[in-house]
Amino acid sequence: MQDISLQGQVAIVTGAGGGLGRSYALALADAGAAVLVNDTGGALDGQGGERGAAQSVVDEIVSRGGRAVANTDSVASPDGGESIVSQAIAELGGVDIVVNNAGILRDRSMGKIDWDDFQSVHDVHLRGSAHVSQPAFRHMREQRHGRFIFIGSSAGTFGNFGQAAYGSAKGGIMSLSGIVAIEGERHGILSNVVCPIARTRMTDSMLDDALDLDPDHVSPLIVYLASRGNAETHQVFSAGGGRFSRVFVGLTDGWFTDSARTTANDIAEHMGDILSTEQFSVPANAADEITALAKRLENHTATGGR
Ligand SMILES: NC(=O)c1ccc[n+]([C@@H]2O[C@H](COP(=O)([O-])OP(=O)(O)OC[C@H]3O[C@@H](n4cnc5c(N)ncnc54)[C@H](O)[C@@H]3O)[C@@H](O)[C@H]2O)c1
């Protein structure tokens, strides 16, 4: 099999001044893409800014023979998103790939939410991903090609104690990617989520030192999803330590009854059937679920509920 090449393509990686984003930017550049390396260079909670973080990754890419430009705009405002995309178009000639990776942490449990922190976390993760993606989507729609990779988290897919703002923002990102995938398909735009597990400044204190969780273990999936050869869209992947998996939202076949006569007691009695994952489907979109339900209703009526 020929090596996957991103030659002639332009990628934006947000939050790429360190950690996972740096690894994605280097891997995309090694595969031939010209890369806009965005990073405000702030602390883990988003405060402050070491403006040189993005430039130092650009220098690394250039020293390896690649092409890259630095950008220090914050993804947290719509203007920042516009400016990141316009710079990629003006200085690198377009946008084919967007990796929405920028992130901050301000962990609080539900009972202790601080609303300013909640908003800042959503502004960077959820709104930030949308701020960059909207101008990029418009550009990709015109050129009839594009690849979005949104960065999720197990805190968003499965939930995690103490991460009300972060987890809900990451959950929203998963839904946003799904909408981009559904709306983008007719324009040649594909969108997927990667939920990484890697040792960075964000996770170092939570991970066992013995685990080999290098950010570079995640990057091959980013490069594959960014490539023209990738046909997957509307998927969620988990990647870390050399393990690559699919995460999905499924719908159990559940328990089907005559709705007019169902009581709360019936629900209690059949909760096991409702929850059983023995038979399930993965609807492609909301309409898919309704079509499947309509079919079951038709069958139910045709067989007189038998
Ligand atoms: N490390 C993991 O195991 C893990 C797990 C799940 C999800 N993630 C996600 O992966 C992404 C990268 O995280 P990381 O672990 O490499 O941590 P990190 O702190 O090293 O990377 C985040 C980067 O985003 C930048 N950033 C923050 N606010 C920004 C803004 N407003 N505009 C532009 N850049 C901004 C930071 O300066 C930083 O370089 C994050 O979205 C994080 O939530 C990481």
Description:
The chain has 306 residues and is an alpha/beta fold. The chain has two domains: 10-247, Rossmann fold (3-Layer(aba) Sandwich), CATH 3.40.50; 251-302. It has helices spanning 19-30, 52-63, 78-92, 115-143, 154-157, 164-184, 219-226, 264-275, 286-302; strands spanning 10-13, 34-38, 68-71, 97-100, 146-151, 189-196, 235-240, 243-247, 251-252, 280-281. Strands 3-2-1-4-5-6-7-8 form an eight-stranded mixed sheet, with helices on both faces. Strands 9-10 form a two-stranded antiparallel sheet. Strand 6 (189-196), helix 7 and strand 7 (235-240) form a beta-alpha-beta unit. Helix 3 (78-92) packs parallel to helix 4. The chain is globular, with a radius of gyration of 21 Å. The model has no long low-confidence stretch (mean pLDDT 95). The structure holds nicotinamide-adenine-dinucleotide. Residues 14-15, 17-21, 38-42, 44, 46, 74-76, 101-104, 124, 128, 151, 153, 195-198, 200-203 line the site of nicotinamide-adenine-dinucleotide.
Please write out the topology.
Elements lengths: L9 E4 L5 H12 L3 E5 L13 H12 L4 E4 L6 H15 L4 E4 L14 H29 L2 E6 L2 H4 L6 H21 L4 E8 L22 H8 L8 E6 L2 E5 L3 E2 L11 H12 L4 E2 L4 H17 L4
Parallel strand pairs: 1-2, 1-4, 2-3, 4-5, 5-6, 6-7
Antiparallel strand pairs: 7-8, 9-10
Helix pairs in contact: 1-7, 3-4, 4-6
The structure holds nicotinamide-adenine-dinucleotide.
The site of nicotinamide-adenine-dinucleotide has 33 residues, from helix 1, helix 4 and strand 6.
